[in-house]
Fold this protein.
Amino acid sequence: MTSDVAVAAGGCHLFSGCGFPAPGLNDFDFKPLFTIGSFNFTKPEMIAFLSAFIVIGFFWAAFAKPKMIPGRLQSLGELAVVAVRDQIVRPSLGKNGDKYLPLLVSMFFFILVMNLMELIPVLQFPSMSRIGFVVPLAAIVYILYIYLGFKNQGALGYISNMWPRGVPWPVYIILIPVELLRFFIIQPFTLGIRLFANMFAGHLLLSIFMVATWYLMSFSIGLLFAAGSAAMVLFVFLLELLVDLLQAFIFTTLTATYIASSLEAQH
Amino acid sequence: MATVSTRDERGGRGTPGRGSAAEEEAVNRALGLGTGWTVFSYLISGMLAYGGIGWVIGHFTHIALLFPIGMMVGLAISVGWIIYRYGSGTPGSERTRGQGPRG
């Protein structure tokens, strides 16, 4: 990790003549690890694959041969599934929502593991801080949301239910542009952008304090500031642990809420 | 995964009892989260929709002020609609509940 920080700092130190090498957008661009044809395989993609393998591997190992008296791994797997079921699925969808449990458990743990990768030395990058990883997830959720709505309410019923009822017709006309924009653009946008922005900001914050610690470290008053910056690294690290979990929870809970609203019987 | 008998189905610790405080809290949290982001979406949508309309009209009439006026009007419409729809105070108890996709 130290060598990565040193590279990010460009070998700069306080009083060495160069200014503070503030981390920026360049830290989110990576050289390809290898190339297949015109496709460049980069570190964020490797982390995404690794996260998927970890989640699949864990649940495969836990539930491939389930036993009535579970072993340690099966107990841990059950605890994970039950936690998502009780805290996310059942509160939004009730018992009927259990058929969406595999989707929501996979989604929660995939996002969580992807996010936690930013705190693991050597890897230390959250792939969700690249918008290209968030948009497909939000698109999957939104396509499912609209599909379930059409399936359960019928095409005409779904379109008519999109509009608020029980309001005077002038209000109805006033609300049309707001509802259209909210439903088709803002809602899916906010679903994805929140996860992306939190991961992006968290990674940048961690990078800034790590580079600052390295930059300020010298036999001078800078050592005091370096210690302060190192304390901030620890604080942001703990904060990011919470944010990683919270963002996975919020994304999955909102997915469950969207599914619930698509399944809801309309009257 | 679905075939696995889970810890609480075997009587272990896990699921809070039906109607328990923990379950109610989880339901309120999910409803509150959904409502919160819908409200946020309405605020942004109102400003963008009417700001956009104001900008288009302003572009052709050369009145630049119509863009910020449109945004303010959109914000006012959104706030009014949010108060009407969610003003009853408790999460998930909006006036037009069951009258359109929420979330």
Summary: Chain A has one domain: 2-263. DSSP finds eight helices and two strands in chain A. Chain A touches chain B through 60 residues (CB under 8 Å).
